[in-house]
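Risk register update: the risk of archive-format incompatibility is retired. Evidence:
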Amino acid sequence: MTFREPDRRRFMDLAIPEYAYMFGFLQADGHLAKGTGQKGALSVELGLRDAAILRAFEELTPYRSAITERTRSTNFAATHTSATWTLYALEARTKLNALGLPYGRKSRTIAPPRVVFARHDYVRGLIDGDGSVGFTGKGHPFLGLTTASTAIAAYVCDYGAEATGVERSVQRTARDGMYNVLWTNEAAQRFAAGLYYPGCLALERKRAAARSVAAWRRPEGMRAAYTPRRWSPDEDRVLLSVNSPTAAAAALGRTMQSCNLRLWRLRTGQVPPPA
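Archived output:
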């Protein structure tokens, strides 16, 4: 960690990488509860193996907070020990809430902050909280995010497209209504390399997984990686003038899914319109 002397004036300044990461992690894995009057608490509960990140949050927070441990039985293990970081200060909770950490249930309503923030670190916080880095059963590297928030899924898709050159669509699964966004092979390597840079704040097990992903080499004989086709300003103009993913797909020689996603991004301002 590089930011070791927190003060209340700079607490949750998301231009600071550690706070951007911390905020992304809290949006994914934290819980902000409101009690009667001015009472309430922010809490994060993790397995004991990840408790080091909670100690980092405690160091970054210029308010009194505490880390406690408990052991209980769960559906997955006879005994499970977890660590919980809890912060009660109203001033801190108010600042977090204003930045976009809602009270109560939040999975569908969270969104990227509307202030300047360190993008790599914020996305890494989301991945550490609600994502995965590792290898498939066939030994292929992957990096992915599971979220119920449309805004978060769309943002990570756009960020990932910039980082990897590979676009992903935003669509809820029919089974559970979640978004599962995934990059594999070289795209996963490029994504992970940008997120887990040397010296960054991160869950140690996911940092180690990112290192393993970086070391992967495509096996001899495995089909070459797909090279994505970039959108040109001329294609954007055609797409906007036709205003139909089906018609544009035929005119441009692209898939309807690709045209639909690009049209949505142009309409919502996710990408700039053609000059």
